[in-house]
């Protein structure tokens, strides 16, 4: 089987749904996907899902991605969905580059997303602490933020959208592990603080600051889970996340220590 081309059965389904898509250029593999496979042909991106790609923290659901793109694209925050099928989606290619600098762009982008109407039938990330429910991207890492010249940025790779506390998205973007995996290094303390200063909802920022130890502990556990399965880079990423936890101890653990004899 030619692994450089998308599966033939998916190409047949795509052609049936999009008979107007007939570019002269061949399919090209897109780099960057850690779980799923991506190809581009002309102005179309085809994403084929790994059925074993989910983790305990991050889902990997093509139906959820299709629903999220339909819901979010009209607001200018995601690419347009072009076609979908069992285990795949196709959406408009977005020219630009992955986010590399200026955390204020991401803070405003997530603020816009979290202010949108919610989308029914998505998984709910319920917490023990009180919180509002917002639409979450749930994977706003640098590789999933496209910066476009003279246009607003977009979020791509919507395979794990959810409903829940927007503090989740803040934690994932600020995560030292996720920054290392996708940008090569954690954010500086100044950028971390600037992001929180710029994000528009102060109550969400306050909840993030209160519950950051729990949120980042989950990310560290995810990295350890991936490292145990030999995923490249995740052992180092887990160490970076745990270093943050050492700086910001879990308040529940601290309370237990203070009550110990």
Automatic annotation (TrEMBL):
It comes from Neogemmobacter tilapiae. It comes from the Bacteria. This is Aminoglycoside phosphotransferase domain-containing protein. Residues 128-175 form the Aminoglycoside phosphotransferase domain. It holds the Pfam family APH. InterPro entries: Aminoglycoside_PTrfase, Kinase-like_dom_sf.
């Amino acid at each position: 089987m030619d692994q450089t081309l998308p599966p033939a059965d998916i190409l047949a389904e795509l052609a049936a749904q999009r008979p107007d898509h007939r570019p002269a250029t061949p399919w090209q593999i897109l780099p960057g996907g850690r779980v799923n496979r991506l190809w581009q042909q002309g102005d179309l991106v085809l994403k084929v899902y790994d059925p074993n790609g989910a983790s305990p923290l991050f889902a990997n659901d093509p139906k959820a991605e299709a629903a999220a793109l339909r819901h979010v694209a009209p607001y200018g925050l995601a690419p347009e969905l072009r076609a979908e099928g069992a285990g795949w989606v196709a959406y408009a290619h977005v020219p630009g580059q992955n986010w590399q600098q200026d955390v204020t762009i991401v803070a405003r982008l997530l603020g816009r997303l979290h202010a949108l109407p919610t989308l029914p039938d998505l998984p709910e990330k319920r917490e023990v602490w009180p919180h509002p429910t917002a639409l979450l991207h749930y994977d706003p890492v640098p590789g999933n933020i496209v910066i476009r010249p003279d246009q607003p940025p977009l979020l791509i790779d919507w395979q794990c959208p959810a409903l829940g506390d927007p503090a989740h998205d803040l934690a994932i973007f600020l995560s030292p592990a996720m920054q290392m995996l996708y940008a090569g290094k954690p954010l500086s303390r100044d950028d971390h603080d600037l992001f929180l200063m710029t994000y528009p909802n102060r109550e969400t920022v306050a909840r993030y600051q209160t519950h950051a130890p729990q949120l980042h502990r989950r990310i560290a556990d995810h990295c350890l889970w991936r490292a145990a399965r030999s995923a490249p880079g995740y052992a180092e990423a887990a160490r970076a996340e745990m270093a943050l936890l050492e700086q910001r101890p879990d308040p529940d653990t601290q309370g237990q220590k203070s009550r110990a004899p």
